[in-house]
Amino acid sequence: MKKLDYAVIGKSVPKIDARLKATGQALYVADLKFPNMLFGKVLRSPHAHARILRIDTSEAERLPGVKAVITHKDVPTKKYGISPARYDENIFCIEKARHVGDKVAAVVAIDEETTYRALKLIKVDYEVLPAVFDPIEALASGAPLVQEDYPGNINVEVHQSFGNVEEAFQHAYYVRKDTFLGHRTYHSPLEPHGSIAMWEDGKVTLYTSTQKPHYIQYYMAQEFDLPMGNVRVVAPFVGGGFGGKTGPTDLDFSSIVLSRMTDRPVKMLYDRSEMFAYNRGRHRLTMELSTGVDRDGNILGVHANFIMDGGAYTGNGIATAYYSGALLTLTYEFENYRYDMVRVYTNLPGCASMRGHGACHPRFALESQLDRIAQHLDMDPIEIRLKNLRKPNTVTVNDLRVNSCELKACIEKAKEVSGWDKTRGVPSKGHGIGLAVGSYVSGAGYPIYRTNLPHSVALIKVNEDGTLAILYTGAVDIGQGSNTVLCQMAAEAMGYKYENMKAVSADTERATHDFGAYSSRQTLMSGSAVKEAGEMIKAQILQMAGEMMNVDPMKLDCRDAIVFLKDDPCVQKGFGEVAREHFVKKGLLLGRGSYSPPKLGGKYKGATVGTSPAYSFATQVIELQIDMETGAITLKNAWDVHDSGMVINPALVEGQAHGGLYMGIGEAIWEEVRFDENGRILNPNLGEYRLPTALDLPMFHASTVESSDPAGPWGVKEVGEGATVPTEGAVANAVFDAIGVQIDSLPLTPEKIWRALMEKKHFHGT
Amino acid sequence: MVPIRNIKCEKSRYAIDLVINGDPYSLVVKANALLLDVLREQLNFTGTKKGCELGDCGACTVLLDGKPVNSCLVLAVEADGQQVTTIEGLEKNGKLDPLQEAFINNAAIQCGFCTSGMILSAKALLSSNPHPTEQDVRKAISGNLCRCTGYVNIVKAVLSPAEQEKKS
After folding, report:
1. What is the sign, positive or negative, of the torsion defined by CA atoms of A592, A597, A599, A604?
2. What are the DSSP calls for B140-154, one per residue?
3. Is A26's Cβ below 8 Å from some Cβ in B?
4. Which residues contact A149 (CB under 8 A, 6 or more apart)?
5. For residue A760, what pLDDT is reported?
């Protein structure tokens, strides 16, 4: 079926919540108020590593307006985390604090101002311990131990081998080894995290700024020994997540405890610096990468040997550890691959998932190295990529099955729209153009904890006269527009109108089960469930219409809320009329859908990570100008060409590509979380953690190529995270093209570029 | 800094008058109360967002006598006697401001958390310069951070009313 045949999907309808957001009516956690509500705040460790000898809360408790002060003694001491294999975190520190900002106690009071006064009155005696901030130092013998259960500060080790890399390297014409450094970056969603908890009759409701209500429900039920049904988690409007709102926060746990103690709703919000202290952003990563090629540039083997700075806690960093190697194999076909990785504990805030989970820094390394290899072989960077490109319906060396893959079309289109041939290689001082490719999962093949629950469930309810259909979904709209595309998909499947759809989402009680907004999963996975639910409605409508019109339902179809005879489309009945009749004769008109991915992946340890029903592919081109005096970069142009399967809403897909480029460019050039020698964050604010402003950037150009994947409803795949994957590499390659010098560590600051230019001058006299 | 005029002070509490979105409000505020907190907590204009409390992100932008300010950097007492426009004040008689329409139609809204401040900064620009260049727009919104859009569709949206005018 061609795109043109669709009535609702494939169109850039305005977002379903755009009006609410444009008028300031959309309510985020911080905007919610409940009668009798109290405010809570967490006390944080000023030390990176310190034994907690004594906590005296008595003075704080006496402050008028303070209702309670809690420490680890008042809460369950069960360890929690994201993956059961690495539960290493307590609600409050018990024996020691492991990073600056680690949670030590919490207060609840009548207003926010009183909580700040109370925090100052809590006396904590610390014995400051030696701390370790560098993963390589942390691995040395005698290094301070961050987590007692993990000797040598080793949090996770991965050793995977496919084919025989050593042999491949022996046969290679050229083996290139580089050591790259990826840096610590932070999601910085505009909306700070927040939680509001309230209890009624032994049941708790938690409003929280999360991408994953289901998992938060699961973690809270586990920690507080409650049946899942006694925990309701609601994500109201969420002001961006980017992977940072995927785990439970100390706000979630402490608001629940404080609300139970006071029997009143308790609201707790992070300020901006607390967000940086919670972190869970992108890992700092030392990446030793070796690639062997033959004389023609065919990749024979790749060895990735990585060390990750995990910070003090694991969170879903255990998945990052596997993803960082797993996704490297997607874009190019090679037979020999080894991945060695150790994720190390340090006395810094924990790192976890961030847009393009695990894929971005390793991709920067591989794409940078390929350009260097191409230069060595005197090949064009595009030529070496085309030579090694992944083809559709292939399986990677690490057992990831790729169905659709239009990477070749992406590269060719990117080459054309960016005017690559005109710009590349034309000598022009400080002017450069670079290209990189990437790929990403359209939903993780396996859930985070072991369960056989379906990944997505959807329910559609049509009202009495058919003028309204409500989609119930557990998918979470964090700004990417899932409610919009899912309503488009529902309307398409039902033969209905988008304008008459409403979505009830992201609520474990009032919506339906879904694993939520992570791993770029919702368009494919939630969408599959929605399509099935919509088709169930349509089948019932056609059945009813057949009875009303006295024709075989098989001869009918429904589109745009009109039921018609396929052979004679002038013979019609309105959807509303049929729906009403159904309601009267047969009862409530409901559609149900459910989605579980097929069994995916190989049998080796860690084989589940990286699996997905479908993979997106992308090519990005960056054009920039470097000031040869200062080393500063001015972005000139940025292109993203995406294979994201069938596109449900082109404007939203473009928006995701813009946002992906934005984040990737920011990380490549300006963004970095920095620490002083005591482990304090030097830039825990949006002035010094340099998010790009509108003045720093040019217009971006986003487009897609024709594609369809059999695993996705109507052939959809992801776009949201994949558009961040190639960016750092594309920027680095543009810098390489501009000044002829390679910089191995991110971000590509003016200082590094200036030093590289000076060195080049010194050695080559140019 | 706006001079504080004729304010009655008692126990560090001040009586102030604000005209918010055209309506008069007489309030008693603490000396250290931020305009942002008074708008959000005391008066429930929650369309004004709190993103950083340091003047870095611009999510709390409101118009003070027509000029964009970070309401987290303005004491409520400083705003005494002035006209405040929040995002809630742009819709008139059920009709959205053309800029709000432009943001919706240009897919310039993703998570929405920067949107209120972004629209108000843009509104101030268009009031004084109805035919801005792309660079004018970028400069005007450079104090408003957006983490979702790369500013691409926001810039397009702010340029669009003038372009619409040209067409018609």
Report:
1. negative
2. HTTTS--SSSTTHHH
3. yes
4. A88
5. 85
Instruction: Check: pTM over 0.95? Answer yes or no.
Output: yes
- Give yes or no for a contact between A231 and A217, defined as CB atoms under 8 angstroms apart: yes
Q: Which pair of structure tokens corresponds to residue B114? A: 């920067």
- Interchain CB distance below 8 Å, A190 and B145: yes
For residue B11, what are its two tokens? 């126990």
Domain residue extents for chain B: 8-88, 98-167
Do A22 and B113 make contact, defined as CB atoms within 8 angstroms?
no
Q: Quick one: which of B121, B112, B110 has its CA closest to B144?
A: B121
CATH number of the B8-88 domain: 3.10.20.30
Alpha-carbon distance of A172 to A157, in angstroms, equals: 28
- CB-based contact B115 A651, cutoff 8 Å: no
Architecture of domain B98-167: Orthogonal Bundle (1.10)
Residue A485: what are its φ and ψ, rounded to 5°?
-70, -35
Is A663 an interface residue toward B (CB < 8 Å)? yes
Closest to A438 in 3D by CA, of A164, A660, A157, A624:
A660
Q: Is B92 helix (H, G, I), strand (E, B) or coil?
A: strand
pLDDT in tens, A61-107: 999 999 999 999 999 999 999 888 899 999 999 999 999 999 999 99
> Cα-flanking dihedrals φ and ψ of residue A574, to 5°?
-75, 145
Evaluate whether A86 touches A311 at the Cβ level (below 8 Å).
no
Give the span between the Cα atoms of B91 and B161, in whole angstroms.
16
- Assess whether the region B8-88 and the region B98-167 belong to the same CATH fold: no
- Identity at A317, one-letter amino acid code: G
Could you give the domains of chain A? 3-26+455-595 (3.30.365.10), 32-129+189-241+245-278 (3.90.1170.50), 357-446+609-764 (3.30.365.10)
